[in-house]
Amino acid sequence: MRSFHHLQVLHDEEVEARIGCLIPHIENWLNGTLPLPRKEDMRPIGVVIADAKIDIPLRPIRDMIYKGVAEFTLLRTYNDTFTPQNFSKAVYTVLGVDGSGIIGHIKVTLGKSIWIDRSAPISAGLILLISKPAEIIVGRDSSEEQTISRTSVGFAR
Predict the structure, then answer these.
(1) Which of 14, 30, 103, 154 is the most buried (most CB within 10 A)?
(2) Contacts of 146 (CB under 8 A, 6+ apart)
(3) Considering the entire predicted model, what is its pTM?
(4) CA 48 – CA 141 distance, rounded (Å)
(5) pLDDT > 60? residue 144
């Protein structure tokens, strides 16, 4: 796998635009899957659990971010908090922004992907797809893609 530094933006205009086009088609599903909590339920998130029920609706987006297999989950932030403890060394892709949209010290927009190496602050109002893949493809330039495609071995899904 390529090496990354903490809070590295995996800039890819094409992927960001394609995610922006897909979100309206799954927005109702996202809001139903991650409903807003009641006031008494609002507490910081420390650990999130991967859930297989989100596999099919997110498949087109996940295919733009990584190849092969990965552990992944969705996270909606209701308060300013920190990235989940069990999802460090992961790609955080923004699927929704309602508010300031900050990860670490970086302002994020819909479709942005950021590598998180260790715990980082995240603002309230984000919907994030968190992926811990074997091979990340978002943010790769075309010359790097050609080199990798000649040398990589496929993974079963």
Answers:
(1) 103
(2) none
(3) 0.79
(4) 31
(5) no
